[in-house]
Amino acid sequence: MEGEMMTGNLAAAWGARLAGVDYVPAFPITPQTEIVEALAKWCENGAMAARFVTMDSEHSMMTAAGAAAATGARVFTATSSQGLLYAIEVLYSISGWRVPLVLVNVSRALAAPITLEPDHNDVLASRDCGFLQIHAETCQEVLDSILMAYRIAEDERVMLPVIVNLDGFYLSFTREPVIIPDPEQVKLFLPPFRPAHLGFKASAPHALGVAVLGGTPYSYFRHQMHLAAMNALDVHREAAAAFEQLFGRPYDVVEGYRLEDAEDVLVMTNAFASKGKGAVDVARAEGKRVGLLRLRMIRPWPADAICHALQGRRAVAVLDQNLSPGQGGILFQEIAACLYHEALRPRALCSFIGGLGGKNISEGELRAIFEQTAEAGIRGKGIGPVLLYTEAEHREMVQLQVLAAGSRAES
Amino acid sequence: MTWQRETFKKIKQIPREEHVLPGTALCAGCGGLEALRLAAKVLGDDVVYVNAAGCFTMLAAYPFTPFKGSWLYTTMGSAPAGAQGVRDALDVLIAKGRLPKEEDLKVVVLGGDGSTYDMALSSTSGAITRKLDFYYFCYDNEAYGNTGAQLSPATPYGARTTTSPCSLQHPSGTTQEKKDIFEIWRAHKPPYIATVAPRYPLDLEEKFARAAKFTGPKLFLALSACPTGWLYDPGETPEVAKLAVETGLWPLKEAINGEVTHTYIPKRKPVEEYLKLQGRFRHLFEPTRQDDAIRHIQARVDEYWQQVKG
């Protein structure tokens, strides 16, 4: 087996280490803490030439991160869940400052009820903040995506920060073989950070984040951010080509799995996509023509790549590991929107919600998704949102409610 | 032992050069801006101002700034964390040879009392605890001023704000006591803390000059008489600022490594003279005089100075 066994968290720390970052403001939160612990150790023992600072909150941590990047340092930091939400005000500021940095988010469901286990409501709450988003499936992809993220973020055509997302527990604490790229080759891939338009210095004062009066300048600057984010699609393609050439691992904004002749396609993101691929293999073995599309880049939204992968299919199912109460799955809405103008759009779109708060998605559930999606395709009418939640699970829930009610239940 | 000024003995010693240029969008008669203008005469131009949401946000409105130095607008709650990021990055870049030493800047946080006393307290405490080498300049106008004078934790007893109106239940305006941010800062033992008032320019300039000798957090609380919030004619700002000090309501002091020295001992005029000038206290005098409230304010000041004398 090639590579070293390491957790997703350690792979993230290796990404920051290999990127040669200058500065790591940090704040602990489960399930991310292992990342900053590893970086603290490496900064302390000289393995990394970076300054590590423990801040007083994620809000402060992100402010320090953005301010340091604005000053001209290459910055890395990491958070999760409540921490990401606590910092979200600052995320909007940082992208507005047009400074590149990389933030790793280790997905964890949001309170209330409070939990430690993953889903994607945290990272999708930061969907509109101007950070680009890359969602990783494997530990190797976490490391590789961080290196790519710096190259994309720091490109003059982009100059926006990037979130690299990985699932808490399922990836953050799962050991997988990871090939650590050669540092010299990384230097070829990722040139030193020497921003042309950033930095505070005596000889060239400048003002950043200033107020605007009225909607015209505001609209102008926000639209600039949109155009820059869209540029990241091309920049990603170039970065991926260079990365593959140097390291032999190909990446695209979306990943198709057994799509060639697939009638029905399941859309997923992050680590649970591995489960989805497994279910595709099982279904294929039974003669069903199904495939999977994994969304890797969420912002910018790779509409063309998604349409290209999904056009002409009989039915498409989107499995959202998030819930927008009163609406349904967040990514389903985006998939539906970008397929609307497609002449060969699928006959049916199905929305499934699963994996909330780290709840497993079983083989049986994935099988049911394929069956219901195929039926919807034949019928020409989609379904959903359907919550993956079995009778057996509900019986367990009822038992908990009986315990919670205590003597009141008996009276 | 009386406090001696060493650098600034005469008014003529204050540099004539301006570093905060006129023509900003701030209110006429802004005492906070006057304090900053004076402070900048010592701070100079090699500065990056890290601003928190507040009145001073309007200093830099695209495409203008009144500074010859740099500016970074952060948030209401985290300007000291922004200062941390800038300071650390400057240090790292200089250490790695990517930025010449002569390009270095002083990092100066600007925050109003709303930010300073409440929302940014956590990030300020963090920055002081981490011994961040920075200046903190709080322009204290004793209310959320940029939103039109609402109650802040810096609002003193008896003041009327738009969210602490006078009523039958509360005839004297707010009954809260102004939060003692100086003592909160002092509990962190930073190398230098001072209160300043722009009507006492030599005291102010001297304190910024003294602070420059210290590495670490250097915190300033600047009285910011506020015509629009305190309701007096903008031309009276110097008089209001003067009376705040002369009545003893705004003590001029410094704390070096936690040890407090009062830099000016006022003869202490009755607080009434200060209160009467301002619309925010008018209800204490009209339509009926609220002697209890006025006595309460006077008693608090007397108590404070009693303590100072020991």
Describe this structure in words.
The complex is a heterodimer of chains A (411) and B (310). Chain A is of the alpha/beta class and 411 residues long. Chain A has helices at 8-18, 33-45, 58-71, 81-86, 88-97, 121-125, 139-153, 183-189, 215-247, 273-285, 303-310, 330-339, 363-379, 391-405, 407-410; strands at 4-6, 23-26, 51-54, 76-79, 102-107, 132-135, 162-167, 176-178, 207-208, 254-257, 264-269, 290-295, 297-299, 315-320, 348-353, 386-387. In chain A, the strands form four sheets. Chain A has a six-stranded mixed beta sheet, sandwiched between helices. Chain A has a five-stranded mixed beta sheet with strand order 4-5-7-6-13, sandwiched between helices. In chain A, strands 1-8 form a two-stranded antiparallel ribbon. The longest helix of chain A has 33 residues, at 215-247. Helices cover 33% and strands 14% of the residues of chain B. The longest helix of chain B is centred in the C-terminal third of the chain and has 19 residues, at 291-309. Chain B is globular. Chain B has one domain (23-309): Rossmann fold (3-Layer(aba) Sandwich), CATH 3.40.50. In chain B, helix 1 crosses helix 6, helix 2 runs parallel beside helix 4 and helix 3 packs across helix 4. Chain B is of the alpha/beta class and 310 residues long. The chains are: A alpha/beta (411), B alpha/beta (310).
